[in-house]
Write a structure and sequence with these properties.
The protein is mostly beta strands. Helix content is about 0%, strand content about 35%.
Length: about 50
């Protein structure tokens, strides 16, 4: 059964919460990180669906 999940996310940088949201919405094909993962500058966190 096809469907969609709508979710929001937060990126925490140096103990400051940064809320991210695409202005037009869209579909993600991959979420490359999990809760608690550390990322550094240049890391890919999300991959949008190309379709």
């Amino acid at each position: 059964m096809p469907g969609a999940a709508i979710a929001s996310g937060q990126v925490v940088v140096s103990d400051q919460v940064k809320i991210i949201q695409h202005r037009d919405g869209g579909i993600l094909s991959q979420i490359m990180v999990e809760n608690g993962d550390e990322a550094k500058k240049g890391d890919i966190l999300l991959r949008p669906d190309e379709a």
